[in-house]
Write a structure and sequence with these properties.
This protein is mainly alpha-helical. Helix content is about 80%, strand content about 0%.
Length: about 140
C-alpha cells in the first residue's frame, strides 16, 4: 500500500486585483486560496480547456457582431435623417438677396454654437434618437 503523495509548494506572483478576487472567492466558498488556485490551474490544463476557450471567444465574437449590427443600423438611421433634413431644408429655404445673406452668415455662427450646446445636452442625458425611433415604430405596431 503506497502513501498518498505529498503536495508540492508553488510560489506565484499575482496582480493585487486577482489576489483580492481569489481571497474573496475563497472566503465565500469557505475554501483555502490554495484549493481554489489548484482547481483553477487543473481546469486550465485539462484537455477541454481549449474547447472552453473557443466557446468563450465565440461568445465574445457574437457579442461584437451584435454591436456592429446595431452600429450599422444607427449609422444608416443617421445618414437617412441627414438626407431627409437636407432635402427638406433645400426645398423650403429660399435663397436670400446678398445684403440679407451677409446678415444671415453673421448670425449663423451664433446659432451654430447654440445648436452644438443643445446637441451636447441631448447626448449627455438622452433619450437618443435611435431609442425614440425604436419606441415610435413599436408603438405604431410596425416591425
Amino acid at each position: 500500500m503506497s502513501k498518498p503523495s505529498k503536495k508540492q509548494r508553488l510560489s506565484v506572483y499575482l496582480d493585487p486585483a486577482v489576489m483580492r478576487r481569489l481571497a474573496e472567492h475563497a472566503a465565500r466558498r469557505d475554501h483555502s486560496r490554495s484549493l481554489i488556485a489548484e482547481a483553477a490551474i487543473e481546469s486550465f490544463l485539462s484537455p477541454d480547456a481549449a474547447e472552453r476557450q473557443e466557446a468563450a471567444i465565440t461568445k465574445r465574437l457574437d457579442q461584437l457582431d451584435r454591436r456592429m449590427t446595431r452600429m450599422e443600423r444607427d449609422l444608416g438611421i443617421s445618414v437617412e435623417m441627414l438626407a431627409v433634413f437636407v432635402r427638406f431644408w433645400v426645398a423650403t429655404t429660399p435663397a436670400l438677396p446678398e445684403p440679407a445673406a451677409q446678415a444671415a452668415r453673421a448670425k449663423a455662427g451664433e446659432r451654430y454654437d447654440q445648436f452644438v450646446t443643445a446637441l451636447g445636452r441631448r447626448l449627455a442625458k438622452g433619450p437618443k434618437l435611435r431609442q425614440e425611433i425604436s419606441e415610435d415604430v413599436a408603438a405604431d405596431g410596425e416591425p
